[in-house]
Amino acid sequence: MKKIYELKFVEKLFDKMSSSYAKVNYITSFGFSERWRKQCVEAIEIEKGKVVVDLMCGMGECWKHILKKSDAHSTLIALDFSSEMLKRAEKKKAKYHNVNILKENVLNNSIEDHTADYIICGFGLKTFNHTQLKALANEIDRILKPNGKFSLIDVSVPENKLLRFFYMFYLKRIIPVLGWLFFGSPENYKMLGIYTQKFGNAKHIRLAFQRHNFEVEYVEYFYGCASGIKGQKLGT
Ligand SMILES: C[S@@+](CC[C@H](N)C(=O)[O-])C[C@H]1O[C@@H](n2cnc3c(N)ncnc32)[C@H](O)[C@@H]1O
User: In terms of residue numbers, what domain contains 19?
Assistant: First the structure.
């Protein structure tokens, strides 16, 4: 099971899922994923004319919510390492101004220190183990300007037992069948349940992000079916 956190494994997984990702993401969250992205972005009141970094941007699913808060002086830097996801992001990019796409590993990226006023990450946390999450926290610390804000979200295991039973049954048993029926690939879609089960919720992410210069808050979405953290890097 160790290899599920290997970068090559994750990169290939998203390359393979890219053609059906949008639909499956929508179905697996019962259509909530769009609403959660919007809530995740709105959790940090983005101002116009600023630099926003979208980490693990996929096909640019968060952009419409981010760019609603932007103007001609704003910049969006979007980063992902899956070429197939990014091919689709490139198409979307044509609709917007000032979007720069980087095909890089987030844990070893070329974004300069203190670049971002805001950092968003939609559903990119669960494919990291604890060590990688700490490295992600270091990168967010490095990239953010003092007083910069971040909001991160992922699909989670709800704490309510009944909801947990049905939601996890759905993620682990039904989604792979749907993946098999409609997209011919139960194996890839099994991974969603596996990663989510191991991820639990974002409380442990908050711990990985706890440091002297960060204020971090745990956030739950729809009774814990998704969770995340939002916070601020304190000025120096
Ligand atoms: C579940 S998708 C989320 C896409 C999008 N942010 C959304 O809201 O739907 C996770 C994305 O993270 C990317 N990813 C995972 N690990 C990464 C890493 N180490 N560096 C860069 N991208 C990574 C994957 O390629 C994939 O596109």
Answer: 2-233
Given the DSSP bridges, would you call strands 75-80 and 116-122 parallel, antiparallel or unpaired? unpaired
> Considering only CA atoms, which of 82, 75, 88 is closest in space to residue 56?
82
- Model confidence, pTM: 0.95
Could you read off the pLDDT of 54-108 as tens digits, one per residue?
A: 999 999 999 999 999 888 899 999 999 999 999 999 999 988 889 999 999 999 9
Domain with residue 174: its CATH number is 3.40.50.150
Looking only at Cα atoms, what is the longest distance across the chain? Answer: 54
Band of residue 236 on the pLDDT scale cut at 50, 70, 90: low
How close is the Cα of 56 to the center of ligand 1, in Å? 4
Inter-residue contact 221 to 42 (CB < 8 Å): no
Residue with the bigger pLDDT between 158 and 193: it is 158
Domains contained in the chain, number = 1
Please report which residue ranges of 129-174 form alpha helices under DSSP H.
130-143, 161-169
Pocket of ligand 1 (CB under 6 A): 7, 10, 14, 25, 37, 56-58, 61-62, 80-82, 85, 105-107, 122-124, 127
**Res 175 pLDDT > 90:** no
Per DSSP, 172 falls in state I
For residue 18, which atom of ligand 1 is closest to its CA?
Answer: 27
Among protein residues, the one with the nearest Cα to ligand 1's atom 4 is 58
Of 143, 84, 71, nearest to 112 by C-alpha is: 143
- The CA-based angle 192-197-199, given to 5 degrees, is 95
